[in-house]
From TrEMBL:
A Pfam cross-reference name: Peptidase_S24
Domain Peptidase S24/S26A/S26B/S26C: residue ranges: 94-215
Organism expressing this protein natively: Ferirhizobium litorale
Keyword annotations from UniProtKB, A to Z: DNA-binding, Transcription, Transcription regulation
Protein name (Swiss-Prot/TrEMBL): Helix-turn-helix transcriptional regulator
GO molecular function, one term: DNA binding
Coiled-coil regions listed in the entry: none
Domain of life assignment: Bacteria
C-alpha cells in the first residue's frame, strides 16, 4: 500500500542498498542534501510532507534502480508492517519526562527523539514499531483530570494532526505541553487545555518547534 511511511522507508532502503545515508542519496541525485532528512518529512504544523515524483525519478536515475525495484521496496515494507502487527506482543520505545522534554538535545528539528538520556518503556501494540514513536511521562497535575502524574503518553510525530486530537506541542522557547488541538491555520495553532484551571493557548506557527499527536495513554 502506498503511504507516507512506506514511500519514505523505500527511499531509506534504496539509500542503504547503495551504502548511502538519506542525505548522501539526495546529494547524489542533485537535490538539496537535507531533502530526505527525517526532520523534513513533516512540517512544523504536523502535516505530512511527501517526496515529489521528480525527486523519486532523480534518485532512480542516480542509482540505476528501476521503478519496479522501488515499488518492490514499498511492497516489502508493507508486508513486513502487516506481519509485525499480527505477531508483535510488545515493543520498546524511548521514554522521557515532560520536565526534561523542554531542554535541548532530546529532539531533532522535526520532533523525533534524538540524543542520549532517554529511558525505555514497553508498549504492547504494533505502533511501537513505527519510526519515531516515543513516550512522555506526565509530571505534576497540570493535565488533570485527564492525565495524572506518572501516566505515560505515547506520541507519534509522523502522524497527521487533526482538529480535536490530543497533541504534544513544543515551542521554540523550549516549552512542552499536552493539549487538545482546537484550530490550526497557516498562521496560528490554537490549543485547549486539558485542565480547566489552565488557560487555552494560541501560537503563531513560527513560534512552534513541532506538534505531534498522542496515540495512546496509560491510565
Amino acid at each position: 500500500m502506498l503511504s507516507h511511511e512506506t514511500i519514505w522507508n523505500a527511499i531509506d532502503t534504496l539509500a542503504e542498498r547503495h551504502q548511502l545515508t538519506p542525505s548522501g542519496l539526495a546529494r547524489r541525485a542533485g537535490l538539496d542534501p537535507t531533502a530526505f532528512n527525517k526532520s523534513k518529512r513533516l512540517g512544523a504544523d504536523g502535516r505530512l510532507r511527501w517526496p515529489s515524483t521528480e525527486s523519486i525519478s532523480k534518485v532512480l536515475d542516480a542509482t540505476g534502480a528501476t521503478i519496479d525495484q522501488f515499488m518492490g521496496y514499498i511492497q516489502q515494507d508493507d508486508r513486513q508492517s502487516r506481519t509485525d502487527g499480527d505477531t508483535l506482543a510488545a515493543g520498546s520505545i524511548p521514554l522521557l519526562g515532560f520536565a526534561q522534554a523542554g531542554a535541548g538535545g532530546f529532539f531533532d528539528d522535526g520532533g523525533f527523539p534524538a540524543g542520549q538520556g532517554w529511558d525505555v518503556v514497553e508498549f504492547p501494540a504494533a505502533p511501537s514499531r513505527k519510526p519515531g514513536v516515543y513516550a512522555l511521562e506526565v509530571q505534576g497535575d497540570s493535565m488533570m483530570p485527564l492525565y495524572r502524574d506518572g501516566d505515560v503518553l505515547i506520541v507519534e510525530p509522523g502522524a497527521q494532526v487533526r482538529r480535536g486530537d490530543r497533541v504534544v506541542l513544543k515551542t521554540r522557547e523550549g516549552e512542552v505541553m499536552a493539549k487538545v488541538l482546537l484550530r490550526q491555520s497557516a498562521r496560528t495553532i490554537e490549543l485547549m487545555s486539558l485542565n480547566p484551571e489552565h488557560p487555552n493557548r494560541s501560537f503563531d506557527v513560527h513560534d512552534v518547534d513541532w506538534i505531534a499527536r498522542i496515540i495512546w495513554a496509560s491510565q
